[in-house]
Amino acid sequence: MVILGAPMDEMVTHRPGARFGPREIRAATDLGAEGWHMDLGVDPFADLNVVDHGDAAVRPGDARFNHRSIREAVGRVVDSGAVPIVLGGDHSISFPNVAAVAEGVASGSLACIHFDAHTDTATENYEVEWSHGTPFRHLVDEGILAGPRLVQIGLRGWWPNPPEWEWARGAGVRWHRMEKVIEEGIDRVVDSALAEVSDADHLFLSVDIDVLDPAFAPGTGTPEPGGMSTRELLRAVRKIVSRRGLVGMDLVEVSPPYDHSGITSMAAHRTVLEAISALALHRSGREARPENPTG
Questions:
Q1: What are the chain's domains?
Q2: What is the average per-residue pLDDT within 179-190?
Q3: Which helix (H) or strand (E) holds 168?
Q4: I need a labelling partner for 57 at 20 to 30 A (CA). Which of 19, 148, 162, 272 fits?
């Protein structure tokens, strides 16, 4: 498993600062070279070979170069046989991330579960085609992801508009609004999402930290009140990856300049650690062994 930073935020439409996300996510830990997951009963650093490969080469202000560089860097990780976990950076990086992973698996076999307040399915934002609000539209329109293989969780707020919803219905995209998470609970929503991608051989996980309520993640570029709790997100990621495994992941939109207490970076770090731990359990082929009083 390879950790890779993608420190760019040229494509944000509101508050910048996500270029500093990879650095702060890496720093937001008090763990050493081991970490025992008390709910799963695994030490992911003992069971998996986890390597931090540093950051992809980026040029401030040159988004096209950055996307090419990120795609090449992720492609090299995939070619090595490792699972890339990409730390953003703005959400526009999901296009090169998913595209590179898709090239390494059989055509049409990749699904994506996407946690976000927003669908990121516009054709453009402010006449910019490759902004952080467009990657999943382009991934589906270009045939990299089949519409029914894209499942979105946590959507809320005042965007997108009816044309984007109509496109999503026509493309077969599935989604679970935040209201559904509130009404049904995160476990039932995750069960539904897993059923919706059950016919896919491979899974990519994309987490925009603004899926969390700003009370839990103030350090992000486009915060939207009314979101998930950190507890819900960690549980969801754990459940998805322990059941399905993972061929790639990104975690994006951590903007440290707005994260004065560091809780956003900590939530992001623990979300990645949850995925790594769950993958260790999935590959072990056994059930979780939580630390219960009765043993």
A1: 2-284 (3.40.800.10)
A2: 98
A3: helix 162-171
A4: 272
Between β-strands 51-55 and 174-177, what pairing exists: parallel, antiparallel or unpaired?
Answer: unpaired
* 252 pLDDT above the threshold of 80: yes
**β pairing state of 202-208 and 248-252:** parallel
Count Cβ atoms within 10 A of the Cβ of residue 61 and give its class: 0-12 exposed, 13-18 middle, 19 or more buried.
exposed
Neighbouring CB atoms inside 10 A of 270's CB total: 18
pLDDT at 51 over 90: yes
Rounded Cα gap, residues 282 and 237, in angstroms? 13
- The single residue listed with the structure tokens 């089949």 is 146
Please check the confidence at residue 75 and state whether its pLDDT lies above 80.
yes
Distance, CA of 240 to CA of 115 (rounded, Å): 12
| 128-132, 180-184, 209-213: least confidently modelled range | 128-132
Half-sphere exposure of 59 (CA within 13 A, CB side): 9
Give the per-residue pLDDT at 3. 97
Q: Give me the pLDDT at residue 204, please.
A: 98
Give CA–CA dist 267/231, Å, rounded.
9
Residues 6+ apart with CB under 8 A from 195: none
Q: Is the dihedral of CA 130, 66, 217, 31 positive or negative?
A: positive
Contact 82, 31 (CB under 8 A): no
